[in-house]
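Hello Y.,

Per our agreement to keep a running log of every chain we model this quarter, I'm adding this entry. I've kept the format consistent with earlier entries: sequence first, then predicted structure.
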Amino acid sequence: MQRWVALFGLVLVACAGNPPRGATGGGDDGGGAADDATSGAEADVSAPPSGDDDATGDAPDGSDAGTPYVTCTMGGDAGADAGCYAISCDVGGVHTLQANRDRLVADLAGRKCTDSCTLWSVLNLAERYTFLMDTAYFGDTSSRLYPPGAGNLETALDHAVALYSINGPMAGQGVDGSGRGGNDYNRIYLGFDDLAKCVMRNFAEANPSATAGYNQWVKSDDLAGPHAPFTQREMIVWYRAFYDLQSEGPQFHHWHQDSDFDQAGIDKRLGVCGNTDRSLVESTIAFDSVHSSDVLGDYSGRGGYGWQIVAQHVSIDPQWDYTPSGCAVTSPVNTDPYGGGTFNGMGPSQGADGGCAPGWVGDAACSP
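Predicted structure for the entry above:
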């Protein structure tokens, strides 16, 4: 692996009084999109999209167009048996991995009072690769949202509307103390539109016959179950040795229904304190039998470094050399496989006083 050495100065400025952009949410009807989808009543559910309080977002090409990235409608002529597909979310079709990543990086940058280029320049290698590993499998054919025969090849990544946090690794974390694991590290938090939220909760609809080349989400067999406070957990099985008690591969945690949302519980998770998005998804990858998830970790018994394993199991090029469009190529702030102590991609976390420390990168005068 190429190793870069660079040093960037960073002044963290707290945007006092400004809540996280994702901390908007709203009421809960107790059922969620899966229940609403069969009502037959047509409703506009596009503003704001999945917890984005400005309801503008980025256009599909990554430029700020001043309009919602996605517009969703429910009901209409789909019929009561349409399930999640009674929800229609127009994201403009299938997008490139570059465009989807650009949109999400821009979203997180806005939440952190800065721009995409500045944010990317202050991330360490582990943070960058953590973001890239999870977007690679959500943009893969194994995360297609529509069933075979539908003629729609959009993936979950096409329907991701928010990036709330990039949580890199931390030395000493993990059940084996290797620094490659830990429940709050080596993961990202995403928000999705109503179609993707519904399909995630009712994943069997996306590929009832498990047809190759389409959605491969299954219920996770991890003995620990969903990470609190989430109540549902899926995975994509990449491998399982005969001696393993659970499978390895991508893992994602979320709420089974809107009414499961737990504000006090989510406030305790690093990077998402104050978040009220009912579509919130915690996304990571289990690389070994103890579910280490550091993408820079060495898992020689499983096929190499984490990033090499990802490349072996997705049908798309993970594009590890990604840089946000229009930004200069910059070296990461460090290449420590355990993160090196910098968490510039992390969202708000709970402080000792119980409040949510913002952790902004940029101008204190901005209003994310």
